[in-house]
Amino acid sequence: MQLKEVLEETKLTKKAIRHYEDCDLLESSRKSNGYKNYSEENVQQLKSIKKLRKLGFSIEEIKKFFESESKKQEVVIRKMNENEKILTQHYQKKELLSALNDGKVIEEIYPEELEVIEEKPYMYLQNIYKVFGWINLISFVMMFLYFIVLREHGIQRIGILVILQSVVIVISVELQKRRSKLKKQGVHVLERKPREMVFQYLANLISYGVSGAIINEGLFFARMHLKDGDYFTVSGNILMGFMFLGLSVGMVFLSFLEDDLDISTIL
């Protein structure tokens, strides 16, 4: 393969390819006419080098990456640690910017607050919304199995569940006020604080409990009125049960979405 074809395939410049060759990252052959010949392996190597450069790897790090599996793991782990420090620094800056946005004056920010605290790294969960969604789905299934299959049908203590749900929702709203304020200002916050997730989950969990208890009680009255031949009341109880079941299913679905429902915007 000629250099012109390699340039088109890799979208690299001639200068970049020459540089990688000079750094011993690429070994090409020459034809009898003196022109360089590049193999398919050379093209794939250049594409890999391009990706690693975009990930911030230096030439020396790329050499180690291709040297051996142990060297590859070593350089990747080092790069991950470097990125963790960067994430920590950006997280701390974000917290300070949020404080300024909330009214804190710049004079109250001390110089040491701008330094990276390596002992307190930025923590995150990969695919947090997928994890949160699956936890909600499992909790929903277990809660409905308990109230509809395992628990005896009868009059339930729905009032206590509603009070608990109201308390949790109030706390959730307070925790989400900053997020709502930033969203109104045009700032889309991707990060979720652990306490926000915990209270949102508790609000969802109690909602599943409320719906399950209402359906349980509805089945009890539906059976009772069915014996009396009051089919209108029976139909009403069944429709109410489906309505609350639909609401819970909707909450489970929303828990999988990244731009999830902000409780404070609907109260």
From TrEMBL:
Top-level taxon of origin: Bacteria
InterPro entries listed in its UniProt record: DNA-bd_dom_put_sf (IPR009061), MerR-type_HTH_dom (IPR000551), MerR_fam (IPR047057)
Gene Ontology MF terms in the entry: DNA binding; DNA-binding transcription factor activity; unfolded protein binding
Record keywords: DNA-binding, Membrane, Repressor, Transcription, Transcription regulation, Transmembrane, Transmembrane helix
A Gene Ontology BP annotation from the UniProt entry: lipid catabolic process
A Pfam family annotated for this UniProt entry: MerR_1
Ranges of residues in domain HTH merR-type: 1-68
CDD domains from the UniProt entry: HTH_MerR-like
One Gene Ontology cellular component annotation held by this UniProt entry: plasma membrane
Membrane spanning residue stretches: 131-149, 155-175, 201-222, 234-257
Protein name as annotated: MerR family transcriptional regulator
Source organism per UniProt: Anaeromonas frigoriresistens
